Fold this sequence. Notes:
The chain is an alpha+beta fold and 130 residues long. The chain starts with 5 loop residues before the first helix and ends in an 8-residue tail after the last strand. A hairpin with a 5-residue loop joins strand 3 and strand 4.
Amino acid sequence: MSKPDDLLVAIAAAVESQQTNQMSLTVLVQGAVITGRLAPESAWRRRVAEVLADSDRLGPFASLFMDPATDTEGDGAARRRAPESPSYLHFHVARILQGTVGIPETGGMYRIAIKDVSAWTMGDFSYSEP
Length: 130
């Protein structure tokens, strides 16, 4: 999509402002169907950082996923930046649907540029186990 869908941007903004992870969504991105629940970026980043921190090999990358929306000033006080119009969808417990299989089985964490979404629908699709 050359211009992001205004309604999809509004949905992503509502997820961010409500700090909810209950919005189920399915999107089509370059031919791939991705289905799952949206999460606020801060929650998504926190969860990815936790997973990376638990890994011996990937632990050093955890700090890259710390929430940039919180800036710490010299006095140690955390300050929130002004909210911006979201450019990304942050999925958790999401799957890429491939035939009758959902990959990964347990659901994954995906960050998708809203401008790359060519179609979408509310809700998530179940996949059937063979």
